[in-house]
Design brief:
- This protein is of the alpha/beta class.
- The longest helix is centred in the N-terminal third of the chain and has 22 residues, at 17-38.
- The protein has 3 domains: 3-197 and 237-288, Rossmann fold; 309-463, Rossmann fold; 483-612, Rossmann fold.
- It has a 7-stranded mixed beta sheet with strand order 7-6-8-9-11-10-15, with helices on both faces. The chain has a 5-stranded parallel beta sheet with strand order 1-2-3-5-4, sandwiched between helices.
- Strand 4 (248-254), helix 12 and strand 5 (275-280) form a beta-alpha-beta unit.
- It is built from 25 helices and 17 strands.
- It binds thiamine diphosphate.
- Thiamine diphosphate binds at residues 44, 47, 70, 72-73, 113-115, 146-149, 174, 176, 178-180, 183, 283, 299, 332-334, 356, 358, 383, 386.
- Thiamine diphosphate binds next to helix 3.
């Protein structure tokens, strides 16, 4: 066993290549075990084992900065930087985060986990190090980015600026041909052609051997070898995209051969200016269930559960697709997790994976709508935030009919601060003319999606949580843009529960009923525009408690409060919602309970309200 002796990067530098192979196997089985117990990302990490070992042998983290785009592939990095024991509580509260975390280790520098940002960080860090003359000869800056993340607009912006500025950054393009699904990109196709060209690969290996045998790489000899390599490459390569942008390109290399990757990285280190080291890896490598998972190579362990909101969305979209030939669906590289796969199978010409490119997805949807299509953009709440400018101006300002379907809204829990969907509702409510819907049940989602596609004008967003949906009978489903009164009380207290929070209100009503406090409960359904009948009824009560799982400030409760003020109502309003903070990973229910966003919290708010009036 080598793994148990790895407590820091120095421990892998003294192993020989045979020992590293054994270690790689041990790491794979260790990660499979950890993810089986705790969930998390698997395929991407299984593919990055040898690459990570090579990186930590060549570069001296933390003096050299190793940056991971998105960060879902950083488990091996965590293991070799002394955090093996933390995997027992991977993604559990107080345990190891599923992404890099600055609180965990000095080896983790960035932790945003939204894709395609790493080249910008790298440019910034390299610029600062050069200007401030930090450290011993600055230290190197290395950015690891997947072929999927390379489809994002920010990655292209970063490449462009790195090439132009000539900053000293080693970019490792970890190319496994996949995002969740196969990566959609012509660049990726060109890179694939290199991979498929045996002559190129043979010559490349020969060049590698020459470089490996050379007593000194760098200086005149290094330049000579690299010039020869460039000449050979030019004969075989598709247009040298990177080099046209001002970056050197090295590769492709077998990303599962530690020695090869190591040599490539050492070569890259010798260059001044930005270098792309292209390594080919296999997602899910070494774990048969992952290798055989044709949908996403076990990118993560999540599946669409029967009875979930995602399942309701997937089912309803197909039904609507049959009736509306002009309805199309768009995903930013997540066809499986957003529930679009079945739609894509049924209507392959009407489903578009645009790459990890939310901004482009939204602006492109605006264009489609301008020409008469009805685009449904399926995206996680947290990733829509990236494209809010496009939602506001490209769709909103033009009044285009685009339906945004936001999964994983609210407190999502295990994936930590970057993945909570707490901004979408506040932001969407600020887009003029946008209708904002929050279903409280499986059936509500079906009805709302139908209404949004068939009857709404202009932009619409529908947001739902990851948790299982409540299943209700037909008489408990609303219609159109109306709110639904879920319970009639004695006229003193009115609870308004947005989406999933309706259940907390209904449960609170039961608790209060035992104390002879008979409350009214409303399901607003549509949070913008708010239903006048609901507002009128709320204004007739002494106390209103609104509950939402998005940011409290500027959200639905605030809008209700303002609406009642405008009506000159003296009803007291208690607004419950998420405070403006970053929440570390923990089970969603635990976070919600702590924030008072459960039945007990609602009851306390009622008591607070009663004490104030
Ligand atoms: C802005 C943004 N959109 C979507 C995602 C969800 N997501 C996480 S990883 C991933 C695929 C990444 O593919 P790639 O960069 O090639 O890495 P691999 O997992 O293949 O190693 C996606 C779409 C994200 N993290 N950020």
């Amino acid at each position: 066993m080598h793994l148990e002796h790895i407590d820091g990067p120095a421990d892998i530098r003294c192993l020989d290549y045979d020992e590293l192979q054994v270690l790689a196997r041990e790491i794979r089985s260790f990660m499979v075990d950890a993810v089986e117990h705790n969930g998390g990302h698997l395929g991407s990490n299984l593919g990055a084992v040898e690459l990570t070992l090579a990186l930590h042998r060549v570069f001296e983290s933390p003096r050299d900065v190793i940056l991971w785009d998105t960060g879902h592939q950083a488990y091996v990095h965590k293991i070799v930087t002394g955090r093996r024991d933390g995997f027992k509580r991977l993604r559990k509260e107080g345990g190891l985060s599923g992404y890099p975390s600055r609180a965990e280790s000095e080896h983790d520098v960035i932790e945003n986990s939204h894709a395609s940002t790493v080249l910008s960080y790298a440019h910034g860090i390299a610029t600062a190090r050069e200007l401030l003359d930090v450290g011993d000869g600055h230290g190197d800056v290395v950015a690891v980015i997947g072929d999927g993340a390379m489809t994002g607009g920010m990655a292209f912006e970063g490449l462009n600026n790195l090439g132009h500025s000539g900053r000293n950054v080693t970019i490792v393009l970890n190319d496994n041909g996949r995002s969740y699904a196969p990566t959609v990109s012509k660049l990726s196709e060109s890179l694939m052609r290199i991979r498929a060209n045996p002559i190129y690969m043979r010559r490349q290996r020969k060049m590698e051997q020459m470089a490996g045998n050379a007593p000194l790489v760098g200086g005149v000899l290094g330049r000579g070898i690299s010039a020869t390599k460039a000449a050979i490459r030019d004969m075989w390569e598709p247009p040298p995209f990177f080099e046209d942008l001002g970056l050197r390109y090295l590769g492709p290399y077998d990303g599962h051969d530690v020695g090869t990757v190591e040599r490539a990285l050492r070569n890259a280190k010798e260059f001044d200016g930005p270098v792309v080291v292209h390594v080919l890896t296999q997602k899910g490598r070494g774990h048969a269930p992952a290798e055989n998972d044709t949908v996403k190579l076990m990118h993560d362990t999540g599946t669409i559960k029967q009875g979930s909101y995602t399942a309701a969305f997937a089912e309803t979209l197909i039904k609507l697709g049959e009736i509306h030939p002009k309805m199309v669906a768009i995903t930013a590289a997540m066809p499986d997790s957003t529930g679009l796969l079945t739609f894509a199978e049924r209507f392959p010409d009407r489903c578009f994976d645009v790459g990890i490119a939310e901004q482009h997805a939204v602006a492109s949807a605006a264009g489609m709508a301008m020409e008469g299509l009805t685009p449904v953009v399926a995206v996680y709440s947290t990733f829509l935030t990236r494209a809010i400018d496009q939602v506001n101006l490209d769709v909103g300002l033009h009044g285009e009919h685009v339906v945004f379907c936001l999964d994983r809204a609210g407190i999502t829990g295990d994936d930590g601060p970057s993945h909570h969907g707490v901004l979408d509702m506040v932001l969407c409510m600020k887009v003029p003319g946008m209708t904002v819907m929050a279903p409280s049940s499986y059936q509500e989602l079906e009805v709302m999606l139908g209404y949004a596609v068939e009857l709404c004008d202009g932009p619409v967003s529908i947001r739902w949580p990851k948790t299982q949906a409540v299943i209700v009978s037909e008489d408990l489903v609303g219609s159109g843009l109306s709110a639904r009164k879920a319970r009639t009380g004695d006229g003193r207290i009115c609870l308004i529960g947005v989406g999933k929070m309706l259940q907390a209100c209904l449960d609170a009503a039961e608790i209060l009923a035992e104390e002879d406090i008979d409350v009214t409960v409303w399901d607003p359904r549509i949070v913008k525009p708010l239903d006048g009948e609901m507002l009128g009824d709320a204004a007739s009560h002494d106390i209103v408690v609104s509950v939402e799982d998005g940011f409290r400030e500027g959200g639905v409760g605030t809008a209700i409060q303002l609406a009642l003020d405008d009506m000159d109502s003296d009803t007291h309003v208690e607004v419950l919602g998420v405070p403006i903070e970053y929440f570390r990973h923990a089970a969603p229910d635990v976070i919600l309970e702590r924030l008072g966003l459960d039945a007990v919290g609602v009851v306390s708010a009622v008591r607070r309200g009663l004490a104030k009036i």
